[in-house]
Amino acid sequence: MTNDILDQERQALVELTDDLLGRHCDLDHLRARLDEGTAHTPQLWARLTETGLVSALVPEEHGGAGLAPAYLSGVLHSLGRHAVPEPYLETAVVATAVLGALPGAEAATWLQRIAAGEALVAVRIGDLTPYVAHAADADLLLDLADDGAIRGYAPADLDVEPVAALDPLRPLARVGLRGGGVLLGRSAEVVARARTLAVAGTACLLAGASRRLLDLTVEYVAMRQQFGRPVGSFQAVKHKAADMAVMVDMATAAALSAFDAVDEPDAFRRAAAAKAYAGDAAHLANVEALQLHGGIGFTWEYHLHIWLKRVMGLAASYGTTATLRRTLARELLASVEEVRRG
């Protein structure tokens, strides 16, 4: 398949996602989730399933499309822009990639259930996940250990303690395990790839949410009048918006590229660097969006806070900016020392 065809197919998936979310995950939907105190809804998950987005990475023999992860980088970016309150990254990306790489009837059964929209999966990946996203809604917890052990836990085998999350549309929980669960397989390579997918996928979500902050800010300063002029016409405001745009554009390019390269030799380094940069872009977007919206940005009634909270939550998920940069620095120093010795 040529790159042109791949790009066309990926763009078609993004357009499909934007159209779906524009109709079924708009502000009314997000506000309803906040009012009711529940993030996940079977109705929206069913819509994502019907379009084939949930089963995109599921192998064809288990009811999916069998696509490569590179097809979903733009989809994840779109999900971030729409602040989708569903465990898409965990279920449709990380879990399907892990289960699809494992032999045995147990993994196959879960893949079929995911493809049919009958199962949500939460993921715990060692020290990357002190808190587990959407654990209370999950039909399965995949526990990926550093030693390569991959275990599945049913809800009855878990002690789930919800925590007060900054972003209520991405609920978090402490998870305690009862017993050893079901050993689905053992593969350090599969676990390493799952870590890369989680980090790079979160970078895509983060870049998408930052893009929405930028778009909301540009829209507001173009409309808000002061001294008879739109505030967006003032030089200081233009500079702030331009700085946001540059950072968001670069974060998007880094995130999409890292997700597309999850099977390259340096995949985790690229993913970690992309998420760290996306975290910086998100921080700038958060600060400037709030400031440029003035007093209205602090209110519950205005919808800016949905994305302010989303980027803060995502920036701390699957490795903070500081943690990932520390990891990269240690690897770099170790490689320099190895060269020096060799």
Summary of the model, kept short:
The protein is globular. Helices cover 57% and strands 11% of the residues. Strands 1-3-4-7 form a four-stranded mixed β-sheet, with helices on one face. A three-stranded antiparallel β-sheet has the order 2-6-5, with no helix packed on it. Strands 8-9 form a two-stranded antiparallel sheet.
Q: Give the overall form.
A: globular
What summary fits the major beta sheet? Answer: 4 strands, mixed
Number of strand segments: 9
Computed structural class: alpha+beta
CATH architecture of the domain at 190-341: Up-down Bundle
Strand content: 5-15%
Instruction: Write out the strand line-up for the largest beta sheet, numbering strands in chain order.
Output: 1-3-4-7
What name goes with the CATH superfamily of the domain at 190-341? Butyryl-CoA Dehydrogenase, subunit A, domain 3
Point out poorly predicted stretches: none
First-residue to last-residue Cα separation: 41 Å
CATH topology of the domain at 190-341, by name, is: Butyryl-CoA Dehydrogenase, subunit A, domain 3
Mean pLDDT: 94
Descriptive report:
With 342 residues, this protein is an alpha+beta fold. The chain has a domain of 152 residues: Butyryl-CoA Dehydrogenase, subunit A, domain 3 (Up-down Bundle), CATH 1.20.140. 57% of the residues lie in helices and 11% in strands. Strands 1-3-4-7 form a four-stranded mixed β-sheet, with helices on one face. The chain has a three-stranded antiparallel β-sheet with strand order 2-6-5, with no helix packed on it. Strands 8-9 form a two-stranded antiparallel sheet. β3 and β4 form a beta hairpin. α7 runs antiparallel to α8 and α9 packs antiparallel against α10. It is globular. This is Alkylation response protein AidB-like acyl-CoA dehydrogenase. Its cofactor is FAD. Keywords: FAD, Flavoprotein, Oxidoreductase. Belongs to the acyl-CoA dehydrogenase family. GO terms for molecular function: acyl-CoA dehydrogenase activity; flavin adenine dinucleotide binding.
